[in-house]
Amino acid sequence: MSKTIFDLTGRTALVTGSSRGLGAAMALGLAQAGARIIVNGTNAASCDTAATALRAGGHRAEVSVFDVTSEAAITAAFAGFDKAGIEIDILLNNAGIQFRKPLVELETKDWQRVIDTNLTSAFVIGREAAKRMIPRGRGKIINIGSLLSSFGRATVAPYAVSKGGIKMLTQAMTAEWAGFGIQANAIGPGYMITDMNEALINNPTFDGWVKGRTPSKRWGRPEELVGAAVFLASSASDYVNGQIIYVDGGLVAVL
Ligand code: GCO
Fold first, then answer.
1. Count of helices and strands (H, E) across the chain
2. Cα–ligand 1 centroid distance for 221 (angstroms)
3. Which domains are present in the chain?
4. Who contacts 18 (Cβ-Cβ below 8 Å, separation ≥6)?
5. What is the pLDDT of residues 62-114, one digit of tens each?
6. Which residues have C-beta atoms less than 6 Å from ligand 1?
7. What positions carry a catalytic annotation?
8. Predicted TM-score (pTM) of this structure
9. CA 219 to ligand 1 center in whole angstroms
10. How far apart are CA 76 and CA 190, in angstroms?
11. What gap in Å lies between CA 31 and CA 25, rounded to an integer?
């Protein structure tokens, strides 16, 4: 298979929430495929550290610090890209939080915070990116869903709702933007080894359940999302639209 089909050289990728975790792993993978990375997060020091590490690996990396729940910060960031002549070719909407509490105990403010961070942000940032991709006739949008885009689980209702919404937002983006050469797709990670899941990993009962419920009998590693991310960011997926690729060890596929 020609390397060029997966080559991201000359492309710029904005990866939200990429100073650590899954976002950092996917950002490194996109960089290794040739993309320039715009590292995003809310903490400037963490973003600078992540960008410095990418540069130390011989990759091109810039930093754009903004809160994905702030429409004003998002529009200002894109105005800054415009002013600097930075064209976002690939948008990876990764930023997300988890908040575990039974529905009857869940406060509306906590519900809203998860929805705003995990779902509304992907709409607002996607809209600003698409406004600039449409005139260019090309663009890649990759939204990070979850196996909870398809399943519910007790105590994580706002997260599951936000990730179910990510699946449908991806399909809505496809409906409106595919005709302009933009491919919008999603990745649905399974149970991955991340800081967000530390409490679950360290819970022997939950750890055992994940290993039993997952056909691959193990937790996933963040770098195992890179293949799907590079595929969806590259020319290899130019006729793939509105899909969610589960990288979950087979969990969603079986009872
Ligand atoms: C949970 C987990 C999940 C996973 C992941 C699965 O509490 O069930 O945090 O949400 O992290 O999102 O795709």
1. 9, 7
2. 13
3. 3-253 (3.40.50.720)
4. 24, 26, 27, 37, 39, 40, 41, 47, 50, 92, 94
5. 999 999 999 999 999 999 999 999 999 999 999 999 999 999 999 999 999 99
6. 98, 100, 146-148, 153, 156, 159, 189-191, 196-197, 200
7. 159
8. 0.98
9. 11
10. 34
11. 10
